[in-house]
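Reading is simple: each integer encodes one residue's backbone shape. An example follows:

___
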Amino acid sequence: MGMPMYLATCLWLACGLVSERPFTPLVPLQANDTCSRCNGWLLPGTISERMDVPLRVDSDLPELFRGEGVLYATTAQLPPFAMKDGRPVPAEMRTQRSYGFDGLTHSFDVFLYHFVREPEDAPRPKRIVVYTRNRGAAAVRVTPLQMITAQGEFSAEDGPEAALGRAWLEDAWQPAQAAFELAPREGRATAWTMATSAFVNGMVRVQVSPLESAVTTTSLDAWVVAVDAATPEAQLTAACERLLSTGAQSQETMDLAIAPPTCHVRRVSGVSRNFVWRGGARLDVNRLPADGWSFLMAAPAVQVRDCPEARQTHGMLLHPPYVHPETVGNYLVNYEITLELVNTSSAPVELDLRFGKQDADIGLAWQVLSRDAQVHTAWAGKSKTHDLPDNTRSLLVEPAAATSAQEGRLRLEPKEERTVVLRLTPLPSSSLPFALKVVRRT
């Protein structure tokens, strides 16, 4: 359905003569703390909370599981479940930390990212179900939408994460089922994945509205439940309700009986506010150093202790103690970036805009906001084979057309100024944070 209306007026490479407006001061990021990833430069920006779908539920730990049962829930305490070695997760580690959370009071998203180990760790395929219950005093209308992907090679150019990223930026929601009503204290299976014995990732959107005009707030709880894939769809509600007091067994190697170690980011499970990160800079490209400008992106608090201004994550409203109190994944979080690039010299300059990471892999879905704003997806990093020499990929080259890494071309004539508007989102399976780079074309 295309880009949001407030972005529809943005033009890619808006050209003009150099204006007198000042350039953005570039702040280097430096760290002494061993956990910090403070390197490169600060890209100024702000977090803007989304008002249309204010809340987000992340279900990503246990990422690997076996059996049936709850994977995550927005309840005060998670149901009993065991770790891979069979030890039970203590009750105090299942008692969630709340920062003012009082139910899913508006429409919300649920991010799903789970592996079913088949045939080694599970006797038969599973279906992952989002089950919701009305905890309010008035009936509500629920309209469930989803985008679920599971086909293709994990962490690949055409894999399920890339398909999900494209669907996300294209706003390509599909009805999960027909809209339905939930009476007070009533629950129902709301959306579900296809049967899977491997990897599934996706997003479910639960649009909630009161049925009575006098009601101004709603409140729901949500569970993410793994059920036997052979369960008929008409019986999914009953299957979930039989499992709400049972957690699926974790197959993670990490110890969920303890809080995350000092520098360990871990995965994300919890409830947070949905947000968009908006930022950018006005840059004199003739000051570009030989290795370009590398801006730190998608960094959580634990990794920016020495440069807190570079944090681009949001604190959680609810989470179990075995994860950090912030959204450390930032998968499918939208970044909207405006770069004003100015050539103040008397000679032309050619540039490229890139993304990447030196020590791991990062995938992005992105649009360069022109009139058609086509969505692209690609991966870069140490295990990828189509990178440029600095382990990056160009945002100005269509990946599907490239059989090998290619530099993008952005030419600025003498005394010319251009504005580039980017919209991008990190793909699931990425290792964050990552670098957004402006480099001189070789």
Summary: Residues 1-13 have pLDDT under 50 and may be disordered. The chain has two domains: 5-50+274-298+333-440, 55-250. The two ends are 37 Å apart (CA to CA).
